[in-house]
Amino acid sequence: MPFLQAQLARVRGPFGKKLPISSVTRDHLERLGVTQGSLDFYEGAIVRLASTGPPDQLEALAGRLAQILNNISMDNERGARVLMDEMLRSAVHTAAQPFLATVIVPDMKLAIDTGEGITIHHPETGYQLSITGHIDYTLVGCLPENRAADNLAHYLPEAVAQALTLITYSGTDKVYFCLTTGLTWIFVILVKNGTGNFVYYHSQPRVIDWRLLSSRSYGPNTLRSLDQVMKLIQEWLTPSNGSFDLLFQLAPSVDE
After folding, report:
1. CA distances to 87, 100, 206, 247 from 203, in Å
2. The model's pTM
3. Would you tell me how many other CB atoms lie within 10 Å of the CB of residue 171?
4. Whose CB has fewer CB within 10 Å in the chain, the N or C terminal residue?
5. Where are the domains of the chain?
């Protein structure tokens, strides 16, 4: 694939420290000059967004998710991935336009021809990191990173590292992605600013109540939380639509 080889050659750069994606920490991100901020949703806008769409499709999805929850253990990453697969398929089916071919690519490998990885560098200090491994899922504008863990935010550095490789490889200046257990979702935007530095903005976790979902007690709150998450996934797939920028505000984060 001449095009793929040319693109990889363009982003590799000089050799530096090489790490698998799963080993990237917040310290590595800070040394690369990556900073973080908050993505604060306007709850009223999400409520209005979730009030659109056919309810029968939402109830059908809730039924499929309940069946998964009742028959497959969620105690490990594989179980969570089954749940996420169903939600992503539904989101792609609902969000895709007739002229837009949306494809889910699981486990997209990085630099598979040589294993050198994708090189990210700090534009001012020159510190660089070659990241190897694979991206869990690639969608049109949405990069969900699957993690079955209580402390989901703990895995943000790994998810951001995946997004860094994608934004560097693609040559874009913005990537929209998610971090999820299948029931808890954090929505993230990674931006490359005018100085070449990266900033990622992440939301607070949004949770779907699995107890009510698995019991098939589809009260208003159960379907509302599922509906809101599904609508946000669809918005992350098509961030150029007119309503997207009205859903949230981006702000610098206070030092932790």
Report:
1. 19, 27, 8, 12
2. 0.80
3. 10
4. C
5. 31-104+136-252
